[in-house]
Amino acid sequence: MKRTDLKKNLLVIALAGVCIGAVTFVLLLFSARTYSIYMPESKDGYQNVTAEIGNPDVVEMISVEKKDEVWAVTFRAKQPGGTEVAAVFPHTSEDYGTLKDRHYSFLYVTRFGTILEPADLDFNGFYILCGALAAFFLFAGVYLFLMYRRRKRETFFSYDTVLNFGLSLFFLLHGAVFFGLVVFCLVNPGEALGRILFFAAQYALTAVVMLSLPFILLLSVVMAVSNVWLIRHEGLRRTNLLALILAALMMGGVLAAVVLAFVNTQMLSFEPNALWISVVRTVFSALFLYFLAMLFATQYCCVIAARRKPPLTHDYVLILGCAIRKDGTLYPLLKGRADRAAAFYRRQKEATGKAPVLVPSGGQGSDEVMAEGEAVRRYLLSLGIPETDVLAETQSANTQENMKCSKALIDERKPDASVIFSTTNYHVFRSGILANDAGLHADGIASKTKWYFWPNAQIREYVGLLVRSRKLHAVLLLLLVVFSLLFSNLGAIISALIS
Fold first, then answer.
1. Residue ranges of the alpha helices (H) in 107-191?
2. Which of 114, 138, 279, 387 is the most buried (most CB within 10 A)?
């Protein structure tokens, strides 16, 4: 992602956070000036509910209401300070006569005139803060998803596409957690304590990781099975173990999140051991969820790229190279790319009468008898493609150079030519990005590969794209980890400030 695009997106999200925060603060200044104590109706029925206030100069009782079998005793702030209060609920029992149930609390009035119940970090307007958090996360997620859709329309072959989609998933999952909490607040106002909010903030990341277990389990099984088949057919090599390694890492990550979720018995605490565990849990969960979101986004973009169907209106079809046999013939992977290009060549010629020029690309490796581009050229001629419709590029050593060198050849003939490239299905998306890097704005067509080869190859593409943008990922991870640490320990910070 370009730095300008990254800064713009972060600035929009930050401004949205500031605006939502400011509105929330104003709303809380009004709603939190009162505080309600809730008590379910007893079987005998309460009558003449009153309140006992330790320091009447701090708060005063302003109302007693009964709604849906729940009593609410409401206090209003008068001046900063703290006081004990007790809501008294008298009722008459046939066996024991007149009894009084008491609900004790300590209320603290801040200098802003808001009331806080420190024991549960509770306050009126809990649902407002929950709604604000849900609104922020959902806004960030939806905004980034819209940026993904726009990028998909304008320049699909860009790492912006992956980043916007992956980050939108990261924020939308958070938003779903807090939207659920808002619903809980509205349905059960008497049970919606502030401590629940801060507990949810502390465990939101870890909860999302744990909820992803079914998806991870299914994905891990698919990758493991495909990897076993790949090793059986292609042999045991390090590159053929990528899917197994990633499956093991994902399952291990979820198990580690489960362990960290149940280690800490002191919630919302600045006690050193509890804080250390909270920091480790938050950082681990943020990293795991970030890379999981990026994995899903990358796989999705690779699948979409492989299914694209460019129009039959192109001047050149670039065939990306890969290894050839010792006798100069093509391995199935490269043969599939050449066949896909030849099929497109025939369809366009039949549909429009205009035959595109095929450009097989690839230099000669140290263990190859000829250049890959020349080997593909000979194969295309054997298929009946006229020699005048084949232009071989034989100097490049990798996909990036395939694009640069082929562009140079094409520009000599037709500077503004319409170009597509042919490569294996899992390789289309990253090849499109490399084409853009080379100044070659080309679409892609995909040749098929064996089913057991796809998952391992997709993981290789994922790792390649991560490494390619490692500095950008480092910046984003640093920002997300700092944000997650502050957010997850918000309750502990407030508790420490009050105490």
1. 126-154, 159-187
2. 114
Secondary structure class of 445 (helix, strand, coil): strand
pLDDT at 254 over 90: no
Nearest to 103 by CA among 62, 69, 72, 65: 72
Distance CA 378, CA 470 (A): 40
Residue 131, Cα to own-chain centre: how many angstroms? 21
d(CA 38, CA 268): 24
pLDDT digits (tens, 9 = 90+) for 419-449: 999 999 989 999 999 999 898 889 999 998 8
Cα 491 to Cα 84, 118, 220, 259, distances in angstroms: 22, 11, 36, 22
Enumerate residues 6+ apart whose C-beta is below 8 A from 192. Answer: 126, 127, 184, 185
CATH superfamily of 316-461: HUPs (3.40.50.620)
Q: How large is the average pLDDT for residues 23-52?
A: 88
Residue 53's pLDDT is what? 94
Closest CA to 28 of 105, 113, 108: 113
Q: How many CB atoms lie within 10 A of CB 397?
A: 14
Total number of residues shown for the chain: 499
- The CATH classification number of 33-116 equals 2.60.40
**Using CA atoms, how far apart are residues 119 and 159, in angstroms rounded to an integer?**
48
Query: Is this prediction's pTM over 0.85?
Result: no
Q: How far is CA 173 from CA 4, 212, 472, 486, in A?
A: 26, 10, 22, 18
The b/e string for 175-206 (b: 16+ C-beta within 10 A; e otherwise) is bbbbbebbebbeeebeebbbbbbbebbbbbbb
Residue 106: phi, psi to the nearest 5?
-115, 120
Question: In whole angstroms, how far apart are CA 394 and each of 51, 315, 376, 476?
Answer: 90, 20, 10, 39
What's the distance, CA 299 to chain centroid? 13
Which run of H or E residues covers position 203?
helix 194-211
Q: Among the residues of 353-452, which ranges form H helices? A: 372-382, 399-413, 428-437
Domain residue spans in the chain? Answer: 33-116, 126-290+464-498, 316-461
Per-residue pLDDT band at 205 (split at 50, 70, 90): confident
Per residue in 84-138, pLDDT (tens digit) is: 999 999 988 776 677 888 989 999 998 888 998 888 788 887 778 888 888 999 9
21-30, 399-408, 462-471: segment of lowest average pLDDT: 462-471
Would you state the pLDDT for residue 489? 77
